């Protein structure tokens, strides 16, 4: 049985999630960096790709909530034009993880919140 998020569990800092296929995810990431991040710089490409690639390469089943907000918001941005229904699904996933990051003070938390706010517009 997979662990689920609960404040009392040992996995309280990580939330289970399901990622899109790697080709879909890669297309969303590339579109985000070419169409969005170039104009509203929030994420460093190489730094993002270092941990993003590990998610797929290592078949991670759990991810830090802040990174989950970032990656699903990037997917939402990257799919807005060609696949609006995917974008809404990805944004919904990001919003669900967002509540758990509000009490965390870090650069990644700020990046995640900036991405969420910009994705709403």
Which terms would index this structure?
single chain; 121 residues; mainly alpha; two-stranded antiparallel ribbon; 5 helices
Record the SSE blueprint.
Layout: E1 15-16, H1 22-35, H2 45-57, E2 62-63, H3 65-79, H4 84-98, H5 107-120
Antiparallel strand pairs: 1-2
Helix pairs in contact: 1-3, 3-4, 3-5, 4-5
Task: Summarize the structure in words.
By secondary structure, the chain is mostly helical. It has one domain (18-120). Helix content is 59%, strand content 3%. It has helices at 22-35, 45-57, 65-79, 84-98, 107-120; strands at residues 15-16, 62-63. Strands 1-2 form a two-stranded antiparallel ribbon. It is globular, with a radius of gyration of 14 Å.
Cα-to-Cα separation, first versus last residue: 38 Å
Low-confidence stretches: 1-15
Task: Please give the order of strands in the largest beta sheet.
Answer: 1-2
Strand fraction band? under 5%
Query: Total number of helical segments?
Result: 5
Largest sheet properties: 2 strands, antiparallel
- Give the SSE order as H and E letters: EHHEHHH
Q: Estimate the mean pLDDT confidence.
A: 82
Number of structural domains: 1
């Amino acid at each position: 049985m997979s662990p689920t998020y609960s404040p009392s569990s040992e996995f309280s800092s990580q939330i289970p999630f399901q990622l899109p296929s790697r080709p879909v995810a890669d297309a969303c990431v590339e579109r985000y960096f070419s169409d969005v991040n170039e104009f509203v710089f929030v994420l460093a490409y190489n730094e993002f790709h270092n941990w993003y690639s590990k998610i797929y390469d290592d078949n991670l089943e759990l991810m830090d909530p802040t990174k989950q907000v970032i990656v699903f918001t990037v997917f939402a941005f990257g799919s807005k034009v060609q696949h609006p229904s995917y974008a809404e699904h990805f944004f919904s996933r990001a919003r669900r993880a967002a509540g758990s990051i509000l009490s965390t003070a870090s650069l990644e938390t700020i990046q995640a919140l900036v991405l969420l706010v910009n994705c709403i517009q």
